[in-house]
TrEMBL record:
SMART domains: CoA_trans. This is Succinyl-CoA:3-ketoacid-CoA transferase. Keywords: Transferase. It comes from the Bacteria. InterPro entries: 3-oxoacid_CoA-transf_A (IPR012792), CoA_trans_fam_I (IPR004165), NagB/RpiA_transferase-like (IPR037171). SUPFAM superfamilies: NagB/RpiA/CoA transferase-like. One of its GO terms (molecular function) is CoA-transferase activity. The lineage of its organism: Bacteria, Pseudomonadati, Bacteroidota, Flavobacteriia, Flavobacteriales. It comes from Flavobacterium aquatile LMG 4008 = ATCC 11947.
Amino acid sequence: MINKKVNSVKEALQGIEDDMTIMLGGFGLCGIPENSIAELVKKGTKNLTCISNNAGVDDFGLGLLLQQKQIKKMISSYVGENAEFERQMLSGELDVELIPQGTLAERCRAAQAGIPAFFTPAGFGTEVAIGKETREFNGKMHVMEHAFKADFAIVKAWKGDEAGNLIFKGTARNFNPSMCGAGKITIAEVEELLPAGSLDPNEIHIPGILVSRIFQGEKYEKRIEQRTVRKIF
């Protein structure tokens, strides 16, 4: 069985260079590859195009890369929690492509499946459709969207084995599974890394064939963007 394990996040991120396009899993701060983002900050890799549901917050997640001006373009759906993102976008320092969330997910999944393009009704008649081919299906207009082209996809899972099989936990599953195999190289960081064959095949969410490198992360903060609690009387 092929062993996908690498010994460190530094080894996992080998080959990531300036001007590359990178997918990063997560929804808000849930299920983000914390170790990999921190290493990208440390590496100082710049002029990145990042594909992610959101841009993190000012001092965590992709917000750390924005602080260091390492991202030149963000392709996202929701970006409302990051003041630095807003500042850079409004000042023209950051190129931004906002995409309907379902379209973002499907463009990832299409890349994973080797499908070059697809039609969706989302965005027709809006700025999202400008310059894109449109076509009518069953009396409804659709917009053609292309699959993403990414150099690397970086995801975070709960458990994995050395063969690259992955299990996600709860809502941390989000965009991570659809990004596996959607880049030329897929890197998975996991909370618990087990020997190959240790996972129950019936519980595996992503097979190892879609993962290129896997390593065990550490010191996960798992921050919550907004915590709302009820007063106890």
